[in-house]
Write a structure and sequence with these properties.
211 residues, alpha/beta, TIM Barrel, 16% strand
């Protein structure tokens, strides 16, 4: 059996992703990252080229270590400004049929309950073509922007991440059974309560009782 090659594009909702300064080239279009057509055009090209997926990177905060500030990154457009990647995916999914999408999202700065809901929504809208690149963040500037004095120590971040994933998987896989949605018009029953369960998670970092 012949082996298959998997093709994945790698991008970011900004200028200067992995090629700082390329935005100044006359043929570069990355400065159009704020235009929806830029992303839907990219998705169509990737689908036409038989790519399997588009991996979208992300960071919270800016690179501010060099010379003690973020001036160099800001001046050169090195991943700043950067917009949220999630909102790009539904319109790109709409203009494609097979292209998958990898979303980078840090779990260090947000409660798992609203995040799990957003990922579930994305899963529904893309018909299962979205995935999650799980990161715990590494920029001190990102931690400061949400009120932390410093970024949490590495092992502690991964301890937090482990429980975060436990909560997400309980919500995704242990809350709503297969067949819970009935859409029974005659009986006027949309969902079967007997097939929907509170997760009742109580842990070191989170308490999430509901569905």
């Amino acid at each position: 059996m012949s082996r298959e090659i998997r093709l994945n594009a790698f991008d970011m909702n900004c200028v200067g992703h992995q090629s700082p300064g390329l935005w100044a080239h006359p043929r570069d279009r990355s400065w159009q990252y704020k235009d929806l057509e830029y992303w839907t055009d990219l998705a169509k090209i990737l689908e036409r080229g038989k790519f399997d997926g588009l991996f979208i990177a992300d960071v919270l905060g800016i690179y501010d270590v060099y010379r003690g500030n973020g001036d160099a990154a800001i001046r050169q457009g090195a991943q700043v400004p950067v917009n949220d990647p999630l909102q790009l995916i539904p319109p790109m999914a709409l203009v494609t049929e097979h292209l998958g999408f990898g979303l980078t999202a840090s779990l260090s700065f947000e409660h798992p309950y609203p995040f799990a809901r957003r990922l579930s929504t994305l899963d529904h809208l893309t018909k299962g073509r979205a995935g999650w690149n799980i990161v715990t963040s590494y920029l001190e500037s990102g931690a400061r922007n949400i009120g932390q004095q410093a970024l949490t120590e590495h092992d502690a971040r991964y301890d937090y991440a482990e429980e975060y994933l436990q909560v997400c998987y309980k919500l995704w896989e242990g809350s709503w059974e297969e067949g819970a949605i009935l859409r029974d018009r005659e009986r006027r029953v949309f969902s079967d309560p007997s097939k929907i369960h509170e997760i009742r998670h109580v842990g070191k970092h989170f308490q999430v009782p509901g569905i």
